[in-house]
Amino acid sequence: MSKNKNSDLYHPIALFGWFILFLALAQTVFLPVPVLYIFSAVVWLIAVLVKRWETADPDYIPLEETPVSADLEKASYAVIFAAVFPVFVWIGWFFIFTPGASVLLPGAGLVISAVSFVIIILMSLPLMALMGFTAYLMKRMNYGNPVL
């Protein structure tokens, strides 16, 4: 671990990011967890919007006075997309296609399983993109100071 506090992987915002990554990986085992998916995205958004608590630092710059504010607005849209997209995929696949396929195509279990695996991957993509954006945003925030 570097002595540079800005690379600290145990920073509270980073910990929320690790929590979201854990939930994304958990989806590959426990697929019907859209509620946890939404919860993790909301928790991530709250973590990102929390202002810097180390205000005693003389180099502290309020978040509103930095270019990061625009990034936070983009992040809110990313969170909404990451939370909503997989829910619609989950509802569409498991409540519309699967029952119909089971009735119309007896023995189609292998096909359904294969497509379900692809759907699981598609459901994880928004969170993976969100994790990348989180890393970028944390670099830009630099604990409240923009990295130019």
Map the helices and strands.
Elements: H1 12-27, H2 34-49, H3 68-104, H4 109-141
Helix pairs in contact: 1-2, 1-4, 2-3, 3-4
Q: What is the compact description of this entry?
A:
The chain has 148 residues and is mainly alpha-helical. It has one domain (8-144).
Summarize the main sheet: none
Question: What gyration radius follows from the Cα positions, in whole Å?
Answer: 19 Å
Total of domains:
1
Quick one: overall form?
elongated
Q: Helix amount, in percent?
A: 55-70%
- Mean pLDDT across every amino acid position: 59
- Helices and strands, in order, run as HHHH
* Beta-strand residue fraction: under 5%
N- to C-terminal distance = 24 Å
Helical element count?
A: 4
Number of strands: 0
What structural category characterises the helix and strand content?
mainly alpha
- Outline the low-pLDDT stretches: 1-8, 51-56
